[in-house]
Each structure stands twice: as structure tokens, then as C-alpha cells.
Specification:
This protein is mainly alpha-helical and 164 residues long. It has six helices and three strands; from the N terminus they run ααβααββαα. It starts with 7 loop residues before the first helix and ends in an 18-residue tail after the last helix.
Length: 164
């Protein structure tokens, strides 16, 4: 009888989980210096990098690890702090956009230098150039397989961001 305990897929999954949690553990204090929780930063960053600096709430749900009620609570907190606003979708009354405000964009831009330094130091620094390219390709393939809606809203025709 063959034991599954020696299966190399278990090692790969364990390494992935350990690497992810290690990076996140170092990210939390860096973002806290800017008054942001990890999920708040993730939402603001996604909005800032999206066409028109906005995403439908349903697209934000697809792009994060939250449920629709979870993303609503995060966006509510960001709206209360003036970092995000809501905008009705003109073509679909059922949809609402989350839109990053000028204050939200400033907060993200203030956090980015330290965040990018952290990414370079703990995620990319240990890798060679070929490993970096392979990592991006591999992560995109896995992301697309497990979260097929994650690119939702990212393919709208890009236009200058209307920041409010």
C-alpha cells in the first residue's frame, strides 16, 4: 500500500502556504503604518489600478477573498473614512461602483514605496530573473484556474482615471 504522505504535491502546497503567510505577516505592520488593513489596501490598490479608478462591487468580490457582504463592509468602512465613494452604474441599476477618492489615492501612494520595497526584499529578492518570470506566469495560471472571475472589470476600455 502506497502512502500519500510522501506525495510531493503536499510539499508544494505547504511551501506555497508558508511563503504566502510569511509575506502577509510582514506586510501587515507596513500597511498599518498608513492606517490600512491588508484588505483595505488591496481594495484601494485594485480601484486605483482599474480603468476609471473604479470597479463594480461584484467585480471587487471576485478579485478578493471576501464574500459580497464582506466586501460591502470593507467598502462601507472606506466610504466612512473618505477613501472610497459609491457611484451608481448608469447602464445597470442593480450595479454600484466603488470609486477611489483623491484621499484614497493619496493613502495608497503613501503606502506604495514601503510596500514595493517589502515585495522586493521578501518575495522577489531571493529569486533570479528567470524564477521571477516563472513565478508570475505560474501564479497567473493558478489564479485564473481557481478564481476565473478575478479579471472582471479589468478589461474595460482604459481612459483617464476620474478621481473624486
Amino acid at each position: 500500500m502506497t502512502s500519500h504522505l510522501d506525495d510531493p504535491r503536499l510539499t508544494l502546497m505547504g511551501l506555497f502556504a508558508e511563503a504566502f503567510t510569511g509575506v502577509v505577516a510582514r506586510q501587515s505592520p507596513q500597511l498599518a503604518e498608513h492606517g490600512l488593513a491588508e484588505i483595505e489596501f488591496a481594495v484601494l490598490l485594485r480601484l486605483a489600478r482599474s480603468p476609471h479608478a473604479r470597479l463594480r462591487m461584484t467585480d471587487l468580490t471576485c478579485q478578493t477573498s471576501l464574500t459580497s457582504s464582506g466586501i460591502t463592509r470593507v467598502v462601507d468602512r472606506l466610504v466612512d473614512r473618505g477613501l472610497v465613494s459609491r457611484q451608481a452604474c448608469p447602464s445597470d441599476r442593480r450595479s454600484t461602483y466603488a470609486v477611489i477618492t483623491a484621499a484614497g489615492l493619496s493613502r495608497v501612494e503613501a503606502a506604495l514605496p514601503g510596500h514595493l520595497e517589502l515585495i522586493e526584499r521578501v518575495l522577489l529578492g531571493p529569486l533570479g530573473l528567470d524564477q521571477r518570470r516563472g513565478l508570475e506566469s505560474a501564479l497567473r495560471a493558478v489564479r485564473d484556474a481557481v478564481r476565473p472571475g478575478a479579471r472582471a472589470g479589468a478589461d474595460e476600455a482604459a481612459a483617464p482615471a476620474a478621481v473624486r
